[in-house]
Amino acid sequence: MPRKTGSNRCLDRILPYKDELCKYLKDTWQGMFNLEYDILLYDITSTYFEGLCKQNPKAEFGHSKDRRSDCRQVLIALVVTPEGFPLDYEVLQGNTSEKTVLPVNE
Questions:
Q1: What is the pLDDT of residue 83?
Q2: For 74, what's the count of Cα atoms within 13 Å in the CB-facing half-sphere?
Q3: Given CB 3.0 to 4.6 Å as the disulfide criterion, which of 23, 56, 79, 94 pairs with 88?
C-alpha cells in the first residue's frame, strides 16, 4: 500500500469544501482575469491504477482509453473555461459510460 504524502492527506481534508473552493476560485479568477463564462468546455478522461485499489470504492474495471483493461480506473469529469481555468470537477466510478454522464436535450 503506498504511503499517503502530505499533499494527498490535504486533498482528503478539503474534499468536504470542494463546492465552496470551486466557487471561490471561479469568483477570484473572474475578477483577476476578467473571465466570461458564456462558453464552457467539458471533458472526461480516465486514469488507471495498478494494484487492487481496495480502498478506492470508485475504482472499477471499465472502458479504458489507456488500453489498460487489466487495471481498475476512475473517470474524471472536468469543466474548464476556453482559457483553461478549471471551474469544477467530479470523480466518477470507473465503469461509468460517458454516454450517461450528460443528459441529451432534444
A1: 92
A2: 14
A3: 79
pTM of the model: 0.76
Largest CA distance in the chain: 48
* pLDDT of 27 higher than 90: yes
Ramachandran category for residue 72: left, alpha or beta (phi over 0 → left; psi -120 to 50 → alpha): beta
Question: How far apart, in whole angstroms, are the C-alpha atoms of residue 96 and residue 98?
Answer: 6
CB-based contacts of 7: which residues, under 8 Å, 6+ apart?
none
CA-nearest of 51, 48, 73, 69 to 60 is 73
C-alpha cell at 30: 473572474
Distance CA 69, CA 86 (A): 29
The closest alpha carbon to 46, from 3, 18, 78, belongs to 78
Give residues with Cβ within 8 angstroms of 42, minimum separation 6.
77, 78, 79, 102
